[in-house]
Write a structure and sequence with these properties.
Family: Belongs to the intradiol ring-cleavage dioxygenase family.
CATH topology of the largest domain: Protocatechuate 3,4-Dioxygenase, subunit A
Largest sheet: 5 strands, mixed
Structural class: alpha/beta
Cofactor: Fe(3+)
Order of helices and strands: HHHHHEEEEEHEEEEEHEE
Helix content: 25-40%
Keywords: Dioxygenase, Iron, Metal-binding, Oxidoreductase
CATH class of the largest domain: Mainly Beta
Number of domains: 2
Organism: Caballeronia choica
Strand content: 15-25%
Shape: globular
GO molecular function: catechol 1,2-dioxygenase activity; ferric iron binding
């Protein structure tokens, strides 16, 4: 078809995608086209603005690599990641809620022994011990479940951002015992700014938004027969809980860390001196 008008353009493009063999891809592409065309009409997008958008997305792709996922960071900052989580995650009553994965997940982090610390550098940080059980929806223990965690160091940077940190610092996975119990050792998380030296940072500055995430620890919990759980544990005392730059805070995931100075408790958990403590159960949903 030649000499299309603005009114005709969307229908013509949709027709070109009408025969896509994969029905789900066909649905996604046709809906995306409708919304993109509606957006262009709504804001009366100029060619200069269109080109600026293309250049922005190009830079977002170019800065991404196996240690930095600027595309996920962009999705997070637009609220898309959190929205996808909301519309796709079906959480039965009582199950632990999920939230975003984030751009700093690294596959194949090392296994840790029962209560072994994921902190690999020297320092006098007060440890954080997190213990509890991995349970199913009926309260049944989930033996052998894996709990993978990662977080920033005290300087607000992940190991893959900071060459001064040892590889896999503050990363690792633990295996629950037969009764579902687990014990992990880390440090209390801190709030931090997301990277602002790339296109997403430019967008934040242009829109007068702050770059901060509230203090949290990432966790992915897996077990055969259960849905994979991707979640966070947020620090209840953090000041950024109500304005998380990636819109990922859920009230049910906020936790209070308690300072325990009992020598008896320290001996029980295999540590020395005062420590931060959190008792926390992860409740999984059954696979469909």
């Amino acid at each position: 078809m030649r000499n299309m008008t603005e009114a005709e353009m969307t229908d013509v493009v949709l027709q070109r995608y009408a025969d896509a063999p994969d029905p789900r891809l066909r649905t996604i592409m046709r809906s995306l086209i409708r919304h993109l065309h509606a957006f262009v009409r709504d804001v009366r997008l100029t060619e200069a603005e269109w080109l600026a958008g293309i250049e922005f997305l190009t830079r977002t792709g170019q800065i991404s690599d196996n240690k930095r996922q600027e595309m996920i960071l962009l999705s997070d900052n637009l609220g898309v990641s959190a929205l996808v989580n909301m519309v796709s995650a079906s959480v039965p009553e009582g199950a632990t809620e999920s939230t975003v994965l984030g751009p700093f997940y690294v596959p194949e982090s090392p296994a840790r022994e029962w209560g072994e610390s994921v902190l690999l550098r020297d320092g006098d940080d007060v440890p954080l011990l997190i213990h509890g059980r991995v349970l199913g929806p009926q309260g049944e223990p989930v033996p052998g479940a894996t709990i993978e965690i990662w977080q920033t160091d005290a300087n607000g940077m992940y190991d893959i951002q900071d060459k001064a940190q040892p590889e896999h610092n503050l990363r690792g996975w633990y295996r629950a015992r037969q009764n579902g119990e687990y014990l992990l050792k880390t440090i209390r998380p801190t709030s931090y700014p997301i990277p602002t030296d790339g296109p997403v940072g430019d967008l934040l500055r242009a829109t007068a938004r702050h770059p901060f995430r509230p203090a949290h620890l990432h966790a992915v919990v897996c077990a055969p027969g259960y849905q994979k759980l991707t979640t966070h544990l947020f620090d209840a005392e953090d000041t950024w809980l109500d304005s998380d730059v990636v819109f990922a805070v859920k009230s049910s995931l906020i936790r209070q860390f308690t300072l325990n100075e009992s020598a008896e408790a320290a001996a029980k958990w295999g540590t020395r001196g005062a420590f931060w403590e959190l008792a926390n159960d992860f409740v999984l949903s059954k696979s469909e």
